[in-house]
Amino acid sequence: MEFIKEIEWRGLISNKTKGTRDILKRKVNLYSGFDPTSSSLHIGNLISIILSIHFKNYGHNVFFLLGTTTSLIGDPSGKKGERSLIKMEENIFYSRKIRKQLFNLSKIFKIPIINNNWNKKLKFIDFSRDIGKYFSINYMLNKDSVKKRRRSLSFTEFTYQLLQAYDFYFLYKHKQCVLQIGGSDQWGNITCGIELIKKKQKTQVHGLTHPLLTKSDGTKFGKTENGENIWLDPKLTSPYKFYQFWMNISDVQAKQLIKIFTFYNKFSIDKIIALHDRTPFLRILQKKLAKNTTILVHSKKTFTEIYKINQILFNPKIKNILTCLSKNKLLLIKKYIPCKEIILNNTKIKIKVLDIFIIDNFICKSKNEALRKIKTKSLLLNMNTVFSDYVITKKDFLQKHFILIKKGKKTFYILYFKYEV
Fold first, then answer.
1. pTM for this one?
2. How much is the pLDDT for 77?
3. Under a CB-based contact definition with an 8 Å cutoff, are residues 86 and 92 in contact?
4. β-pair type (351-352, 177-183)
5. Where are the beta strands (DSSP E) in 257-407?
6. DSSP secondary structure letters along 235-259
7. pLDDT at residue 235 greater than cutoff 90
8. Helical segments of 249-392, H only
């Protein structure tokens, strides 16, 4: 399949400049930028990475641009209010973390990472004369990111589009990049770079963006029901939670996202969807998505361990097999699901279950919440219902140290009891 048709079929094109299809018939150099404004990328960024990998797989030369200097300014695109400027020490820390994530995601595909430190050499007067003169105020004001925040936009954020334009210009001159790709919210910044190169170099370069995904209710895709981002950093979003996010998406979403987040070809995806539609209760699409994304972001070993945990926790006979689980399997569960370690100072154990459910707001945020959940049988201790006056003793411990708590239909916690020496 022609490359442009391939990514169109996958739903990976939002906008593209005229002539993009023609230049992609030959090998080109292109880049995708990532500003380290936090300590981790999230699954929205993963779309740009996967799109970059598609370009690489089709024989194009791809670069990842780490926007260490542009992140000090802050991109106003898609923001309702002004960003808080990050401190220099945060910038260094974030840059190291994002570089490591990009490296881990790109090492198989051998995509080089470039840092835009060249902006540190820019002098304000020189930049105003050499770059600023190519843009009218009217041109800059007409960018969506500016129009939506004209009253609250600072001069600092206003200059961001020029800095990103200069990045494109620099990479065109030094790396022969003729295409920039990114999310649809970057279209204004990308076209700014195209305009600069056109005026300074008398050359036509190109831009291509992918859609920003939203859920069926219009909210941003890539967040949990509580509004938390799904991060790629395992310390911010555990690999188990990452896996479960994909397992819990709707069938409608899964049919769209399997084209975007996996590398299966059209024939294979059509076959998977047909199989899923015949047996939707097996959640074949969700399982394929969860497996592929977990392996890509974390590792095959991590996926295998999470899969084993899921086989235990969602086994219809879990109540019967729980007491037979080995210590190693319980430790494996402890590794991935939320765990609370509790120090015991004597061997005679008698703990009110209500105290356990509200300890450090780990399972429930309040006594009232715990009581409501107990009343509706939404809190299970080792898969057994309990009353609010239940007292935990050593007989409740699995392998002398563990208690498994289930909250609601899908959320699990593990308590690990350690004896004070």
1. 0.91
2. 83
3. no
4. unpaired
5. 339-344, 351-352, 379-381, 384-385, 391-392, 402-407
6. TTS-HHHHHHHHHTS-HHHHHHHHH
7. yes
8. 251-261, 266-278, 284-297, 300-313, 318-321, 327-336, 353-357, 367-375
73 is written with which tokens? 């300014």
CB-based contacts of 47, cutoff 8 Å, min separation 6: 12, 183, 210, 213, 260, 261
CB atoms inside a 10 Å sphere around CB 419: 12
| CA 59 to chain centroid | 26
- Measured CA to CA, the distance from residue 188 to residue 180 in angstroms comes to 12
Work out the number of other CB atoms within 10 angstroms of the CB of residue 59. 10
Q: CA 403 to CA 412: how far, in whole Å? A: 11
Contact 39, 94 (CB under 8 A): yes
Residue that the structure tokens 């699901």 belong to: 337
Token code pair at residue 268: 């294979």
**Under 8 Å CB-to-CB from 22, ≥6 apart: which residues?**
none
Interval 316-337: pLDDT, tens: 999 989 989 999 999 999 999 9
pLDDT at 151: 77
Residue 356: name the closest of 413, 409, 300 by CA.
Answer: 413
CATH number of 3-210: 3.40.50.620
Q: Can you give 57-125 as a three-state secondary structure string?
A: HCCCEEEEEECCCHHHCCCCCCCCCCCCCCCHHHHHHHHHHHHHHHHHHHCCCCCCEEECHHHHHCCHH
Superfamily (CATH) of domain 325-419: RNA-binding S4 domain (3.10.290.10)
Fold type of domain 239-313: Tyrosyl-Transfer RNA Synthetase (1.10.240)
Query: d(Cα 280, Cα 255) in Å, to the nearest integer?
Result: 12
- For residues 283-304, give the mean pLDDT: 97
Taking alpha carbons only, the member of 294, 330, 338, 281 closest to residue 309 is 330
- Considering only CA atoms, which of 120, 20, 28 is closest in space to residue 69? 120
SS3 label, residue 411: strand
- 99: pLDDT strictly greater than 70: yes
Reduced to 3 states (helix: H, G, I; strand: E, B; else coil), residue 346 is: coil
Every domain of the chain and the residues it spans: 3-210, 239-313, 325-419
Does 215 score more than 80 pLDDT? no
pLDDT single digits (tens) 157-191: 999 999 999 999 999 999 999 999 999 999 999 99
Other Cβ atoms within 10 Å of 156 Cβ, number: 14
